[in-house]
Amino acid sequence: MLLRSTLTMVALFAATPAFSQALTAEERAQVDRIVTDTLKATEVPSASIAVVRGGEIVFAKAYGKQSEAMPTPRDDAPYQIASVSKQFTAAALLLLAKDGRLSLDDSVAKYIPDVTDGDRITIRQLLSHTSGLQDYWPQDYSFKAMATPVTPQEIVDRWAKKPLDFAPGTQWQYSNTGYVVAGMIVEKVAGMSLLDFLKLRIFKPLGIMAYDQDLAIGKGFPQGYGRAAMGPVRPATPAAHGWLFAAGELAMSARDLAKWDVARLDRKILAADDWMLQETPVKLGDGTSTGYGLGVSIGTANGRRFVEHTGEAVGFLSENIVFPDEKAAIVVLTNTWSSDAFITIGQALARTLLPAPPPPAADAADSKALLTARQVFDQLRTGTLDRALLTENANYYFTPVTMNDFRTSLAPLGDPVTFVQTGRARLRGGFVGRAFRVTYGNRALTINSYADQSGKVEQFLIAPVQR
Q1: Domains in the chain: how many in total?
Q2: What pLDDT sits at residue 358?
Q3: Are strands 211-212 and 79-80 parallel, antiparallel or unpaired?
Q4: 3-class DSSP assignment, residue 448
């Protein structure tokens, strides 16, 4: 149940059309084309998606063959979301902490005996993958033991009693084992099963229909698929009961998962400070950020903040990514674990449906230089140069003949359409050099300028360029 790379998803977001809430007919057609083309190219049997914009679910649809018995896709069909479930386990512990029934800084040994160094591992470290407990399922296939049912305690006995892979809090390493221990703590403190607690405190209030993924098998449920290399796509044999538990036990529809994303955006169910706590990257003992909070990855790509997690179960891959500043989210669920189609679809949906990332903040010095350059340019085309803006050398350069050539060649062009800096400022000979581009419909000019440290213009050369 390996955590798939978030960077693959977010790094390719590019400029997109202006934001609007409801999907237009054209956008719906684009979404249909993105999903169906990707399924066809990758031979992934089906996908179910949901889109949140403006803090509302504006689109949810399923595509393809969800199982041998479900040739017609249903958008309410519950896919196994696997490790996306981790944020719900973390939320359960945040709720219990808010109730005053535990502290995230309690030791594991307070609740679960015989975990290696359990007196040194905190609940917070379980949730942030910094406990040092060895992961019991790093493979992307079902290993031999997964053919036999297992209990959480048996997972703990086999993996959580081994020597730690590192001292708690000193490294980050994805650990499903840590989440099994965390789920056991929820059940011990709450006095009920983890799933029952989640239904009571989260799913029922939000109108989410969630299932134990071990029971989300058979008639009416999507079938997981896989393939060996480029061989035929075949139904995958589910793992025996108990292997995912608190590390990834949930199944739900894309629309229902999107309801949780809306709750995150609206700060419902959890207190606002607990949402923030979940979304704050945990730091290691040396101050290094892990990029992971409590059950979610957190980061920024191309100026856009995200809160994200992927999931992998036998025959299923899922992506859930929330963009807090845009009040948006994208959910992609697929029923194969042999293709990155879930990432490909998510990337394409983001490019198509989300607003463009905000431009980087303008550098104050560049902004001031742009104003000065435009002022000097306008003066040169009218022949009224304020020589106080120039250095001694620039005043020497702008003779009456030079001034006349600038005026007579620039004035006929009229007012420019655009006037922008191109590239970055650079140092040379004690001056700051900047280039600017001026456009006039089918014509363009470039300005090569230098300024001293006070901002006075040392050089201001203009030349035509090919548009």
Answers
A1: 2
A2: 58
A3: unpaired
A4: strand
